Automatic annotation (TrEMBL):
Organism placement in taxonomy: Bacteria, Pseudomonadati, Pseudomonadota, Alphaproteobacteria, Hyphomicrobiales
Keywords in alphabetical order: Hydrolase, Metal-binding, Zinc
Pfam families: Amidohydro_1 (PF01979)
Its biological purpose: Catalyzes the hydrolysis of dihydropyrimidines and of the structurally related DL-5-mono-substituted hydantoins, to produce N-carbamoyl-D-amino acids.
NCBIfam families recorded: D-hydantoinase
Residue intervals of the Amidohydrolase-related domain: 47-418
GO molecular function, one term: dihydropyrimidinase activity
Assembly and oligomerization: Homotetramer.
CDD domains per the UniProt record, alphabetical: D-HYD (cd01314)
Domain of life (superkingdom): Bacteria
Organism: Rhizobium daejeonense
Identification of the protein by name: D-hydantoinase/dihydropyrimidinase
InterPro entries: Amidohydro-rel, Hydantoinase/dihydroPyrase, Metal-dep_hydrolase_composite, Metal_Hydrolase, Metallo-dep_Hydrolases_sf
GO biological process: nucleobase-containing small molecule metabolic process; pyrimidine-containing compound metabolic process
Family to which this protein belongs: Belongs to the metallo-dependent hydrolases superfamily. Hydantoinase/dihydropyrimidinase family.
Length: 484
């Protein structure tokens, strides 16, 4: 049985050309003119692109005394509806918990996934056991990324010495550290001050986490990576201060990757002034939304290539969960959704406005992260041999985003009312047509874990260079007698 996507224009990160695409056994087997197959999908007027990869989501995540509301079933269904065919979730060990025990929990949760997925492993504490288990995680469990939180003091936060130790271990193992970069000590102090002054509403969440706090932490994370000799990926880069640190590091030749979220590109801090408590609390996430100048900086980074990927950090909570924080903004569960809307919004506000080319769109929604995660071209590409994770993108289809029609069970959508033009006509996950316009035909359990090999190239290059330029004792002859 073969499926042919017929009459479309293939758009990759580098190329745009007319061709049909033939799929067998979940894999692309032929690309060319006038192909025939048992099942034909009409792609006339559409762009045939690699399915989106969301680098950063939190499905059924234990966090701030509750669990994020989307699980692997609804989260991956939402992704597919919006053209995203793979998500990368976070395995989050409790403090003191074995990384491998935590991974068993995540393996159980993900059995219901409709689309392929992978995990980043979080480093939430540090000792010899974590050091040793990191090797098993990389060599045997197919995970080559470790996330570190510089925020959430007293919960997930790790200190500089722990980060340096973990980054150094990443350098040895060929792994990539990820960082949530906000200065957790300063945030905690500012939160206390705000509360003491009676500032307990959701807007105080944003006041407690200004851009400087993110910029400082981003600089620090980059410095630690430089000293440890590894690349680093900064998640949810929200402001010019953090972007500037990333830009500067890249100009110095460092492998530093920055990831804005679709939320930070499109929503600004005026959301927190909304008189409706529920509205403002629904938008509480870390880092918070910023003003328009920061948004311009993020768009410029995508255009110039100083920022690499657009993610969602999808971490949705119901209205009732958000209300845990009535009277104390510190207890509002942090996070917003976006999985279903990332690609249509980025197309509408990026490609349709001329801010991004179609090829740049593919790069920042799929190909760049596939390369960063070391799964390219199995994912993130339209080439023979790649997984047939494909979105047939109809640039004319439109809709108004609404919680009423979304896949997520949450009662609201932070993008409610936004019009999008450009939506999937079909979304295929390893050749299976899971979405046909508004018809959702996802198959629970179809999704498979995507194993990722350690990075040989970047880490090897960095360690070779580091060894070459390491400080060396100067050997001297005829050293004079001590003057003491
Ligand atoms: N970003 C956010 O507010 N929630 C998800 C957890 C995290 O990554 O910080
Ligand atoms: Zn984070």
């Amino acid at each position: 049985m073969s499926t042919v996507i017929k009459g479309g224009t293939v758009v990759t990160a580098d190329l745009t050309y007319k061709a049909d695409v033939r799929i067998e056994g979940g894999v692309i087997v032929e690309i060319g003119p006038n192909l025939a197959g048992d099942e034909v999908l009409d792609a006339a007027g559409c762009y045939v692109m690699p399915g989106g990869i969301d680098p950063h989501v939190h499905l059924e995540m234990p966090f701030m005394g509750t669990y994020s509301a989307d699980d692997f079933e609804s989260g991956t269904r939402a992704g597919l509806a919006g053209g995203t065919t793979m998500v990368v979730d976070f395995c989050l060990p409790d403090p003191g918990q074995s990384l491998l025990d935590a991974l068993k929990r995540w393996d159980n949760k993900s059995t219901r996934a409709n689309a392929d997925y992978s995990f980043h492993m979080a480093v939430t504490w540090w000792d010899k056991q974590v050091f040793e288990e990191m090797e098993t995680v990389v060599r045997e469990k197919g995970i080559n990324t470790f996330k570190h939180f510089m925020a959430y003091k007293g919960a997930l936060m790790v200190n500089d010495d722990e980060m340096f130790a973990s980054f150094s271990r990443c350098a040895e193992l060929g792994a990539l550290p990820l960082v949530h970069a906000e200065n957790g000590d300063i945030v905690a102090s500012m939160q206390e001050k705000l509360m003491a002054a009676g500032n307990n509403g959701p807007e105080a969440h944003a006041y407690s986490r200004p851009p400087e706090v993110e910029g400082e932490a981003t600089n620090r994370a980059i410095t630690i990576a430089d000293m440890a000799g590894c690349p680093v990926y900064i998640v949810h880069t929200s402001c010019e201060q953090a972007h500037e640190a990333i830009r500067r590091a890249r100009q110095k030749g460092m492998r530093v990757y920055g990831e804005p979220l679709i939320q930070h590109l499109l929503l600004d801090d005026s959301e927190y002034s909304n008189p409706d408590w529920d509205h403002a609390a629904a938008r509480v996430m870390s880092p918070p939304f910023r003003n328009k100048l920061h948004q311009d900086s993020l768009w410029a980074g995508l255009q110039a290539g100083s920022l690499s990927c657009v993610a969602t950090d999808h971490c949705s909570f119901t209205v009732q969960q958000k209300r845990y924080g009535v009277g104390d903004f510190r207890k509002i569960p942090n996070g917003t959704g976006g999985l279903e809307d990332r690609m249509p919004l980025l197309w509408s506000y990026g490609v349709n406005t001329g801010r991004l080319t179609m090829n740049e769109f593919v790069a920042v929604t799929s190909t760049n992260i596939a390369k960063i995660l070391n799964i390219y071209p199995k994912k993130g590409a339209i080439v023979v041999g790649a997984d047939a994770d494909i979105v047939v993108w109809d640039p004319k289809r439109t809709k108004t985003i609404s919680a009423k029609t979304q896949q997520s069970p949450v009662e609201y959508n932070v993008f409610e009312g936004k019009e999008v033009t450009g939506l999937p006509r079909y979304t295929l996950t390893r050749g299976y047509v899971a979405i046909e316009e508004t018809t959702v035909k996802t198959r629970e359990g179809h999704g498979q874990f995507v194993s990722r090999e350690p990075f040989q190239a970047v880490n090897k290059a960095l360690s070779t260079w580091k060894e070459l330029v390491a400080p060396r004792k100067v050997e001297r002859t005829g050293i004079p007698a001590s003057g003491v």
